[in-house]
Design brief:
By secondary structure, this protein is of the alpha+beta class. It has four helices and five strands, in the order H-H-H-E-E-E-E-E-H. The chain is 63% helix and 14% strand.
Length: 262
């Protein structure tokens, strides 16, 4: 048997204190390392947070600028739309005014057209009544225009413009004939009962004289049923002289011819 070694109490206590101190230092070192690691992690998170904040701030600033541009654009569009609305309202008001003026003008034109149509109908009736009393030469010339006139002026599909054109054409030709001395060649039945070619001088629409190659003469005047012709033995030389003057076969001279005014 080995003999047991007995340590003094003071040595034991010293050993225990040394062990405790070493353990405390180990714990402190361990705690310090943990704190440094935690601090590093915290610092890394703080840096990351600052970076996120900076990025978010930058994105917000850019978004703010874009939003501001869009707001300005929308304001411009609103202003343009409001201006257009004002223009449309103004144009609408002008259109209403113009429409009212057009409606009034159309109404006035319709009234004027009705008045002109009524006047044209009256002229057409008067011309129809005048036609039989026109000299044969002018009546032959105006036959196409009379043919285009409506039989019933109140019930016709002929345009008002065409009707007025016919009326004006007839009146112009009648007025022209009435202001001239016209000489034509016609065929008339003479005293022997046979038709013969004669020279007829129309003095407007009021009077006419004819003479045959044999010197037989007569006078014509308008009537309700057409022209009425009367033979006149005494007028032969005078009418023959007038015919020769009109044909430039004789010098101009005063030729007395009877005129009957009714």
């Amino acid at each position: 048997m080995r003999p047991r070694t007995i340590l003094p109490r003071a040595a034991v206590v010293a050993a225990l204190l040394a062990a405790g101190l070493a353990w405390a230092r180990s714990e402190e070192a361990s705690d310090a390392g943990a704190d440094i690691k935690s601090s590093r992690e915290t610092l890394a998170k703080w840096v990351e947070t600052q970076q996120i904040i900076a990025r978010e701030k930058k994105d917000w600033q850019q978004g703010k600028e874009i939003l501001g541009s869009r707001i300005a654009l929308v304001k411009d569009e609103i202003a343009a739309i409001e201006k257009k609305l004002v223009e449309l309202r103004t144009a609408g008001s002008e259109s209403v005014t113009k429409k009212s003026a057009i409606v009034a003008e159309e109404s006035a034109l319709k009234e004027a057209g009705s008045a002109v149509a009524a006047r044209a109908a009256g002229l057409e009736r008067d011309l129809r009544a005048l036609e039989p009393g026109l000299p044969e030469p002018i009546r032959d010339k105006l036959r196409p225009l009379f043919g285009r006139m409506p039989a019933d002026p109140d019930q016709t599909r002929v345009s008002l413009a065409e009707r007025l054109q016919n009326v004006v054409g007839i009146l112009n030709e009648v007025n022209k004939f009435n202001g001239e001395i016209t000489m034509v060649t016609e065929v008339r039945t003479l005293s022997d009962g046979k038709p013969s070619e004669v020279r007829t001088i129309y003095v407007g629409l009021a009077q006419a004289y004819y003479v045959s190659p044999r010197g037989e003469a007569g006078v014509g005047r308008p009537s309700a049923g057409g022209w009425h012709w009367e033979p006149s033995r005494d007028l032969g030389p005078a009418v023959t002289q007038a015919v020769e003057i009109l044909q430039a076969k004789a010098k101009p001279a005063f030729v007395p011819l009877p005129v009957k005014v009714e």
